[in-house]
Design goal:
Helix content is about 40%, strand content about 15%. With about 290 residues, it is α/β, with parallel strands linked by helices.
Amino acid sequence: MSAQIIDGKQVSTEVRERVADEVAEFIAGGGHQPVLATVLVGDDPASHVYVANKLKACKAAGIGSVHHELPAETNQRDLITLVRALGDDDGIDGILVQLPPPDHIDADAVIAAINPAKDVDGLTATNAGLLAGGRPGLVPCTPAGVIELLDHAGTELEGAEAVIVGRSNLVGRPLISLLLGRNATVTAAHSRTRDLPAVCQRADVLVAAVGVPGLLGAEHVKPGATVIDVGINRTDDGLKGDVDFDQVVEVAGAITPVPGGVGPMTIAMLMANTLEAARARSLAKVWG
């Protein structure tokens, strides 16, 4: 029997509609319109598409947006100056610097300059530390989207054994904390893991986030497991995930496709984070 296909497009639409309703309620209750500031350096075509999609999502959700587009030769100091100014701007609730920047700019230094209260990508050390400590903060969008998909699929996380293949700061590490927070038992697998198929076969929830097309096949999957494929790899045959979908769909209980799985969730959760940042800032002003 083929697995249930977890439709990320449908779930992302539901999240965006929910955020739009909550934004309207927030404003009607006396709150301000949330505002997201986006910063794009250079002329990478894919980055321009990503930012345009984020701005479009803002408009649909009732979130204001301010876009800063800088030439590729912009130096790191000037970029950091802009990011810090946005952090000090009381009219801005969220800051998103489109990554990666040009090679001459240190992305970590730019992220470090973001005001943690406005870090809607959840990438600053402050928000990473809050998440690791199980405390409230802004959570990276893609891992948050993974949890949303698991909930939508009806996957029981409490007591489940979860294996994450990949340990990046963008996905793997924050997802470990999120799953632990839901009382799952979590194993982080990676390029040094011995007998990867045996480790993966233990998983009730298997998440692939390594950036290697087709790395995980049927031999890695426990029958009936929920498989979340975070990988988006451009190949000669089009976009491919880290999971061999055609194999695994016949073994898993539920699976995300690529494209159309995790990908659409990232922008949806960005909208949710921007609203959350606006709410938190509004409360801080009240209790200030």
